[in-house]
Amino acid sequence: MKVKVEKYPGLSIGNNGHLCFSGADCVRLAKQFGTPLYVISEDVFRDTCRAQRAAFEKHCPDAHISFSTKALTALALMRIAVQEGLGLDASSPGELFGALKAGCKPENTILHGNFKKAEDLEFALGKKVGRIVVDSFEEIEELDAVARRMKVRARVQVRVNPGVEAHTFELLKVGMLDSKFGLPLQNGDALEAVRRILKKKNLDFMGVHYHIGSQILDPSPFRIAAERAMEFLLALRREAGATVRELNIGGGLPVRYDSRHPMPTPEQFARQVCGTVKKIAKDNGLDMPRIILEPGRSVAGPAGITLYTVGPVKHIPGIRDYVTVDGGLSDNVRPGLYGATYDGLLANKAASAARMKPFRVCGRHCETDTLFQSLHLPDPAYGDILAVLSTGAYNYSMSSNYNKFPRPAMVAVSKGKARLIMERETYADLYRKDLTEGKG
Ligand code: LLP
């Protein structure tokens, strides 16, 4: 039941028995910055960026990695991704704004979304966005019209739906046919979309995009999706005379949420995808498209942990024991929304030899707010510090102010040193846009 700390990059146990992240004592961090606290290891974040680049560039030397900022929309981290040679992916104009603010060159940005409004497209083209991934026939018309008005040519990729079933949480599957995302390959919509794009003077067809889901632990759906996409590339050449310069395979690489489970490496995914694409291209005399991937979770997830202070511990004899922490639903909605599970341990008792017992860990929102259905802990007590692991992705970015809890601060740690990269929200922040008397 004990978490295997050594399975998590950046984590260690100090001589004082405290959990350390990137060499920084987590108990000290909690004291210095308060809790709940998002802690991001800059070292792990850089390492994951590098490892993914190395894995894909080994198999496809001109592969390009675009960090999916939706996983962690913190300017300091986006900036690091840029320093590590990654582009930035935005799923909304707001994320695009952030990507540019973080210092990404406009040509290295990609804008997604299943309904981008005319004003979104205008904003993106005005900022000289690198690629717009079109998702519908309506968007093709809208984008062409906006680009014509602005007298620019928009570089587009077409989001297709390869109809691949990836094994992951139900809500995170998007590549299967029954999905709001992408133009289906099966019924000819994807082909028709490219035909229409090729006829538009203000659209520059760059390539094909798909994303089959998130937290995919088995690399084989990546191979199957790549095969289907390559069949589509061949059909495009045959039936529309189209050249596809880029094949964007989306995100989906997994992270460790349980120290007992085996984890595939980025290299395994790279081998599946690049091997498939290269072989089909070679066998059919097709120019190799540039492989682009958009990892979010796998880059940011392992780089983050969240620290909480333990509050009341409640024993209900014969039923269950509860541990309360000073955060929950508003800083990590994933257990409630997806039934997501994590590893966790007491940072101040990381080396404790006390017997581990199961506790239901809940937050302090006015809701069921269960963070862990059952977590084994050694003698948890009021004032302890609970560390939840692998929270770097989709925790901060999906946070809310439910019950008017201010969002936590975020610190970046590197080689034992910490710096504040996001201030804790204040109560005043919570009401900043709220007009008591109304106006107009
Ligand atoms: N590209 C596209 C077009 C996407 O839709 C996504 C994620 C990604 C890339 C990045 O995927 P990743 O590498 O992170 O798997 N909120 C959910 C995850 C939703 C993912 C949505 N799209 C969660 O908390 O698990």
Describe the fold and architecture:
With 440 residues, this protein is of the alpha/beta class. It has 2 domains: 5-41 and 302-430, Lyase, Ornithine Decarboxylase, Chain A, domain 1 (Beta Barrel), CATH 2.40.37.10; 112-295, TIM Barrel (Alpha-Beta Barrel), CATH 3.20.20.10. Helices cover 30% and strands 25% of the residues. It contains 12 helices and 21 strands. Strands 4, 14, 15, 16, 17, 18, 19, 20 and 21 form a 9-stranded mixed beta sheet that branches. The protein has an 8-stranded parallel barrel with strand order 5-6-7-8-9-11-12-13, surrounded by 6 helices. A 3-stranded antiparallel beta sheet has the order 1-2-3. α2 runs parallel beside α9 (266-283) and α8 (220-240) runs parallel beside α9. The mean pLDDT is 96. The structure holds ligand LLP. Ligand LLP binds next to α10 and α11. Ligand LLP is lined by residues 68, 71, 112, 172, 211, 214, 250-253, 294-298, 334, 338, 394, 398.
Q: In percent terms, what proportion of residues is strand? A: 15-25%
Look at the helices and sheets and give the structural class: alpha/beta
List the ligand species: ligand LLP
Would you identify the CATH H-level superfamily of the largest domain?
A: Alanine racemase
Could you name the CATH class of the largest domain? Alpha Beta
Oligomer: single chain
Shape: globular
* Number of alpha- plus pi-helical segments: 12
Report the helical percentage.
Answer: 25-40%
